[in-house]
Write a structure and sequence with these properties.
This protein is an all-alpha fold. It contains five helices and no strands.
């Protein structure tokens, strides 16, 4: 029992005094270290609780034995007194032999009383030590539970900070990849592509408009050519006196001698 108690004291003291920050500083992966420490503390607390419960049970047995010895001492003292009083009554009644007999019973009772008192007295140092040990174990166990709470809080805080840092890193990477102020960024290249498409559409529209104007000009040229062809046909089909052009004065008719008929002589 002594070895077990010393082992419990050592473990409780070691875990309760552990420097969490120093352990985390030396760890390659603090989160994994914290998870492991939480598991170790939880298991150690469970083991310590069982051992302390056994220690408390042993203490209660010692206390019961001590109380029994104290009660026995009181009871034997009462019996010794009763036997002594009876012996005195018998002697007073003239029965010395019976008085001696009860005095002997009183002596026996007193011996029992002394034995019970001695057992109680000898048990007191051990009982006090056991009580002190139990109180220290209870205090150490509470310190371990407090340390476990600290570990759990540290672990949760670390996990939250790690997730926040990861989220911030992802946001920074995303912002960096779409930085619109960077002319080499994807957004700038996409914008430039759109501008080229818009310019192409404007060029196509301008080209279409130019082609339409050309078609109307060609139509006007056709109209003019048609009119020329019509006048030429009239010219060829005319009798010579017809006007080549509508609205123009008719040319004079030529005679056989090449002179105009009815012309005056000079």
């Amino acid at each position: 029992m002594q070895m077990t108690k010393q082992s419990i004291f050592g473990r409780v003291a070691q875990l309760a005094k552990a420097n969490i920050n120093a352990i985390l500083d030396s760890a390659e992966d603090p989160q994994l270290m914290l998870d492991q420490m939480v598991r170790d503390y939880t298991n150690s607390i469970a083991e310590a609780e069982q051992a302390i419960a056994q220690t408390i049970g042993n203490l209660r047995m010692l206390e019961d034995d001590y109380a029994e010895d104290k009660n026995a001492a009181v009871e034997w003292g009462r019996k010794a007194l009763a036997a002594s009083q009876k012996a005195d009554e018998l002697r007073a009644a003239g029965s010395a032999a019976d008085g001696e007999k009860f005095d002997n019973l009183a002596k026996i009772a007193l011996g029992k009383q002394m034995s019970a008192e001695n057992e109680a007295t000898s048990a007191e140092p051990n009982l006090a030590a056991q009580r002190d040990a139990v109180e220290k174990l209870k205090s150490g166990l509470q310190a371990m539970k407090d340390k476990l709470g600290e570990l759990t809080s540290k672990r949760d805080e670390l996990i939250a900070r790690a997730k926040t840092a990861q989220a911030q890193s992802q946001v920074h990477d995303a912002v960096k990849s779409i930085d619109i102020l960077d002319p080499t960024s994807e957004v700038s290249r996409f914008e430039e592509k759109i501008r080229r498409e818009e310019a192409k559409v404007r060029g196509q529209a301008e080209l279409a408009a130019s082609s339409l104007d050309s078609q109307f000009e060609s139509l006007e040229d056709l109209d003019k050519q048609a009119e020329i062809e019509a006048r030429l046909a009239e010219l060829k089909a005319g009798s010579g006196g017809s006007a080549a052009v509508t609205g123009a004065p008719a040319a004079p008719a030529l005679g056989s001698g090449g002179e105009s008929s009815g012309s005056s002589d000079y």
